[in-house]
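Bit of a strange request maybe. I'm writing a small parser for structure token strings and I need a real example to test against, not something I typed by hand. Could someone generate the tokens for this chain?
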Amino acid sequence: MPKNKSHSGASKRFKVTGSGKVLRERAGKRHLLEHKSSRRTRRLTGNAEMAPGDAAKIKKLLGK
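Reply from user aminoacidic:
Good idea to test on real output. This should exercise your parser:
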């Protein structure tokens, strides 16, 4: 049987941890940072965990 391909767009955006949680980057830190407060940009740093309902959909796209 042929192998299943994972969704290449999803594989670039999401990461599944060892325990099965799905991590994503926070939106809003790519451009137009000059008028955003330092507090806001700091809070957008780091990874966030996906909501359970969305995580199931993402795992399906990644073939996990």
